[in-house]
């Protein structure tokens, strides 16, 4: 086994009421002026105002950038950076799901390293730590609040850039399940399937190790148990809390074992058509695992067991097939579209999407490396 490095924010608050504790911590860090990076919906429903009031109570001023797109762009990063410099902010607080977290990471990284966010595409391309980032999470899925991954859409090239950099790791993550209670069904389902994808891709990754394996399998078990409940009833706080822990575990797994072709391919769909990331992952996940089963049958069988399937009487190939069935059943149960054609993906675009997918850093740790034809075939099967 090659040497492993384990990345995680130094402090992570999880559970009901953890937001109030986090604000005290932020005060103790000595910050005076924060840039809150969020989206318009969270501003409209009053979540941003609530956080601003908590900060004001401890003497911290805040400016807001609420222009984050669902797939954050190079333009969003530049706009947010302008607000940050205008108000001379000494820290960044991201509030929301993966979109504001990734946007905030881009802003905080360029704030200290200068240049353009495009300069940092790839693995560990920055030289300086970013401006301190506190990530307050409102969804249970992307785990961006605790990872070194930052995905930004380059509006000129129509691709999603994968920025994997230890310097974009937040200094504090907050998962307060009370902030997740209002999340709509569709978003709950998509972000939950995103978390399942993180866990499964990390478990079959070539960079997996005993720590990431433990995190990934526990995440799979919890998501299989609680995602349906969280989708059915958004105010089921037990389900919300368990999904918050599950997505965090999945984040710990992929932050250190990385991902695979599901993400490499989903990033292209998101960048090209501006589609929701979790939905793209959910549609592609069973098809990529069917391809991976040639080399990962044993591991996929173990995932099936974690999903609650009785695999004792099955051989490895049958166990892998049972895993793929269980993934599809869960996706169907939470109303994920059945194929890419429902998302208006066009067959004639598959060759260019496949070319770009093979360049994505997430695919480098897939258990088996694919040819261009094979990626096109996986996309086609997922139509």
Features:
383 residues; alpha/beta; Rossmann fold; Dehydroquinate synthase-like, alpha domain; 2 domains; six-stranded parallel beta sheet; three-stranded mixed beta sheet; 11% strand; globular; Alcohol_dehydrogenase_Fe; alcohol dehydrogenase (NAD+) activity; oxidoreductase; NAD
Descriptive account of the structure:
The protein has helices spanning 18-29, 40-44, 47-57, 74-86, 98-113, 185-204, 210-232, 237-257, 261-273, 277-306, 316-333, 350-357, 372-381, and strands at 11-14, 33-37, 61-65, 91-96, 122-123, 133-137, 149-154, 159-164, 172-175. It is globular and about 60 Å long. 52% of the residues lie in helices and 11% in strands. Strand 7 and strand 8 (159-164) form a beta hairpin. The model has no long low-confidence stretch (mean pLDDT 96). It has 383 residues and is α/β, with parallel strands linked by helices.
Described by strand count, sense and barrel closure, the largest sheet is: 6 strands, parallel
Radius of gyration: 20 Å
How would you sum up the global shape?
Answer: globular
The portion of residues forming beta strands comes to: 5-15%
The gist of it:
The chain has 383 residues and is of the alpha/beta class. It contains 13 helices and nine strands.
């Amino acid at each position: 086994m090659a040497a492993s490095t384990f990345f995680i924010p130094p402090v992570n608050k999880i559970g009901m009421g953890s937001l109030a504790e986090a604000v005290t911590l932020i005060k103790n860090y000595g910050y005076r002026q924060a840039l809150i990076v969020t989206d318009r919906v969270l501003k409209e429903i009053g979540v941003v105002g609530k956080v601003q009031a908590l900060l004001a109570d401890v003497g911290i001023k805040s400016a807001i950038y609420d222009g984050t797109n669902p797939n954050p762009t190079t333009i969003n990063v530049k706009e947010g950076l302008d607000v940050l410099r205008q108000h001379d902010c000494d820290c960044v607080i991201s509030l929301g799901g993966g979109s504001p977290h990734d946007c905030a990471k881009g802003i905080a990284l360029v704030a200290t390293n200068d240049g353009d966010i495009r300069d940092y595409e790839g693995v560990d391309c920055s030289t300086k730590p970013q401006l301190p980032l506190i990530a307050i999470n409102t969804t249970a899925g992307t785990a961006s609040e605790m990872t070194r991954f930052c995905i930004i859409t380059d509006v000129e090239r129509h691709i999603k850039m994968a920025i994997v950099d230890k310097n974009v790791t937040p200094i504090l993550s907050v998962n307060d399940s009370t902030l997740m209670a209002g999340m709509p069904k569709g978003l709950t389902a998509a972000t939950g399937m995103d978390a399942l994808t993180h866990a499964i891709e990390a478990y079959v990754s070539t960079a997996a190790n005993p720590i990431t394996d433990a995190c990934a399998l526990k995440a799979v078990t919890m998501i299989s148990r609680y995602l349906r409940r969280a989708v059915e009833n958004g105010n089921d706080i037990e389900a919300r809390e368990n999904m918050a822990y599950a997505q965090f575990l999945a984040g710990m797994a992929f932050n250190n074992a990385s991902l695979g072709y599901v993400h490499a391919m989903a990033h292209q769909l998101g960048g090209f058509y501006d589609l929701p990331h979790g939905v793209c992952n959910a549609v592609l996940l069973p098809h990529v695992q069917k391809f991976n089963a040639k080399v990962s049958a044993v591991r996929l069988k173990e995932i099936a067991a974690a999903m609650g399937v009785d695999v004792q009487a099955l051989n490895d190939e049958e166990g892998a097939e049972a895993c793929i069935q269980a993934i599809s059943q869960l996706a169907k149960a939470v109303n994920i579209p059945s194929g890419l054609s429902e998302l208006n993906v066009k067959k004639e675009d598959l060759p260019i999407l496949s070319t770009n997918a093979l360049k994505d850093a997430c695919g480098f740790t897939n258990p088996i490396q694919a040819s261009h034809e094979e990626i096109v075939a996986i996309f086609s099967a997922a139509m």
